[in-house]
Amino acid sequence: MRPIRPADHTSPLVEITAAAKPGPPAEMIFGEWYPALRSSGIKRGGTALTTLLGIPMLLGRKNDGTIFAMRDMCPHRGIPLSAGWYDGETVQCKYHGWRFEPCSGRCEEIPSLTSHDSLEPTKIFANSFPVVERDGYAWVYVPEAGAGRLSAQDALPPVPELPKFSTRYRSAHLVADLPCNVDHGIIGLMDPAHGPFVHRAWWWRSAASIHEKTKKFEPIPDGFRMSPHTPSSNSAPYKLLGKPTTTIDFVLPNRRYETIVAEKNGKLRWFSSLTTVTPVTASTCRIDVLAAWDIAYHVPFITPIAKLFGARFVDQDRQTMVEQAQGLRSNPALMLIDDADKPAKWYFALKQRRLKGVGEHPLQGPVELHWRS
Length: 373
What we know:
The protein is built from five helices and 21 strands. It has two domains: 111 residues, 3-layer Sandwich (Rieske Iron-sulfur Protein), CATH 2.102.10.10; 203 residues, Naphthalene 1,2-dioxygenase Alpha Subunit, Chain A, domain 1, CATH 3.90.380. By secondary structure, it is of the alpha+beta class. The chain is 16% helix and 32% strand. An eight-stranded antiparallel sheet has the order 14-20-19-18-17-16-15-21. It has a five-stranded antiparallel sheet with strand order 1-7-8-9-10, with no helix packed on it. The protein has a five-stranded mixed sheet with strand order 2-4-5-6-11, with no helix packed on it.
């Protein structure tokens, strides 16, 4: 058995200052799939630590390649399982040597038992979670309290997936930790008016480019859609795509899908992204961006160039959240205005509808919103 020395999966973009303490906590939605970390970082016989919805988790990969996710806690006396050993097949607790099969959480051995004991170790289970690899992430299903033991083979909601429109494409991913609760992370994600200020750059937006916009929205299950439209003319990258059409979906609990289909020189090209804001604790969260495209497929170095500009874009949001966290420390009263903040209002209504299990969808049909950005 080898000592468990899990990798530290903090974001390379994180530079949270002492002054930017986390803001007030937010309710978290359980019974959903969340991206835990990049699955490529978990090698055969290896492990990694992360936290989801306030739950410390030990992820790992068995010798046969099977991935697992466990609560990082021995059910016997509460010591973290990551303090113990892992041999590629079982996790052993450092305190009393209890061994667990990590996919099911089933206890395989309690070394202190003697022939006088009638306790059957295999009737004891550590807390394990369904986990599926999809689009390079280890997606973990975090159940509601009292849901019992679950596996990825049970009747669970579909695992989120990045939309793709061809078999040949390039992809990239970005990650950043945010010192705010998931609600502020999400409404920042869907905010349509911050672009010319937060993302001001020669290659994206400028203050002089602000103009009035009109967008149509429609309800979808557990979310809402910005109906297919021509993307903003004041974003330089869109001008390279020819005649693009963009569709943006927000789906509870935390997912923003954007697809762009463009026609250029008689050929269809596409870009898609899946952005998630995942609660790490009740007062902190993490943003993950996964993108794929077949646009400029043959251009040399297109992936590192895309990641360079994408990282700059995400870091602008992160820095804004760091600064906002300073103002949120006192839990001040905030305001939301129409029409630019309407999507945020819909999100809060959808979330309360989900948490309480009652209520109507905040959109009863298609609506049109107007704002300047």
